[in-house]
Amino acid sequence: MWYDIPVRARKALYLRETVFSILACWGFGCGCCVVRPLADAGDSRAMLFASHRSVRPGETFELGLLLTVPRGWHTYGDPPGDAGMPPRLTLRAPDGFSVGLPRLPRAREFRDAAGMSRGYAGRVLFRIPITAPPSAASASVHPLHLNAQWLVCGQTCIPCETNLTISIAVAAERSVPAAEWADLLKQGQW
Amino acid sequence: MRNVARLLEIVAVSGLMAASARSEEPPALPAAPDFAARDLAGETRTLGDFKGKFLVLEWTNFDCPFVKKHYASGNLPALQKTYMEKGVAWVLVCSSAPGKQGHGTAEEWRERLAKAGCAPTAMLLDPEGKLGRLYGAKTTPHIFIVNPEGRFVYRGAVDDQPSFDPATLEKARNYVRAALDAALAGRPIETAETTAYGCSVKY
Q1: Residues B30-55: pLDDT tens digits?
Q2: What's the predicted TM-score (pTM) here?
Q3: Containing domain of residue B161, as a range?
């Protein structure tokens, strides 16, 4: 795991991972990757993926926001328990796309002196169902913009926010699922 | 008890009119526990010191993003000022343990308050977490409003927007403002309890 590495080495690795992620985005249809520094623990990072490379008009697919939380820290579920904040995901899609409610995996409990919280450590995938417009033109590409706000807490709490964009292709002739989706679900506590 | 009250009502309707008022009495408000904690001058303050006034106890930690939302925007300092001018006592409490986020000495707190443009009636330092645990403070911010008779009239969040994003203040429904407006006008408080949101208190 990258977050097992001491702080000094982490910076170099972070650079390498960023470059890798950007390259990976070229070939595999993930969104892009943004890193938000935590005061004393490294980074909590967010990457945006789609369940499909390409969908048919009217087909339902999913976007997946993969959050990584450094060791010893956690982010929150919904409801978050005695403290914290559930993730706030705001999706902006072109006209005709319909966006469903985000789905979160089952949260675990974190206890501290003030009470009990519910959330996630390590990696977690939040899923947003989306339906492409039935009237979408074939061979069209549509940008989807996600604003994500999440809170990461350990001994302190750090607010994280990022804007990510991913494009989905609509093609009348065939639907193409993303090969890495099943692995993402497993990584993201599904 | 509810069945008894209903029975009384039925009896009242059938002729004994005097009994009907009984079922309409509001439930007794929970009493706020007495406390003793030191303020920034090192003086011991108790609940009794504030008797006869509405008292707002606000748990805080200036390094917490949710507290920052309410302070960087000036939201809570403005609320404090408005209601202190109407005779409300507004007391900040910090229950962060030494070494934990938000902890500060009296001197440090004086500086932080001055910088935030915040001048509460008093600020209580509770590094052992006694007052926090006594009141069940779970988050920063967490608000407790006590009436002049020493009973809780509101416990919970500042508003209905559990977010650290200052943009949410605009559409927020401020529970504390609503509770104090109602209390000061002698009206019943519509929302007397909400789930507080924020960072956990760093006991």
Answers
A1: 999 999 999 999 999 999 999 999 99
A2: 0.81
A3: 29-200
- Indicate whether B92 belongs to any domain: yes
Please tell me which residue of chain A has the smallest CA distance to B128: A113
Nearest CA-CA distance, residue B101 and chain A, Å: 6
Chain B residues whose beta carbon lies within 8 Å of the beta carbon of residue A113: 129, 200-203
B-chain residues near A112 (CB < 8 A) = 200, 203
Q: What is the CATH number of the domain that holds B90?
A: 3.40.30.10
Instruction: Determine whether the interchain pair A84/B200 forms a contact, defined as Cβ–Cβ distance below 8 Å.
Output: yes
How many separate domains does chain B show? 1
- Name every chain A residue with its beta carbon within 8 A of the beta carbon of B65: 151, 157-159
Residue B20 lies in a domain: no
Taking CB atoms within 8 Å and a gap of at least 24, the contacts of A177-181 are: A177/A51, A177/A52, A177/A53, A178/A28, A178/A29, A178/A49, A178/A50, A178/A51, A178/A52, A178/A53, A179/A28, A180/A28, A180/A30, A180/A49, A181/A49, A181/A51, A181/A64
Query: How high is the ipTM of this complex?
Result: 0.74
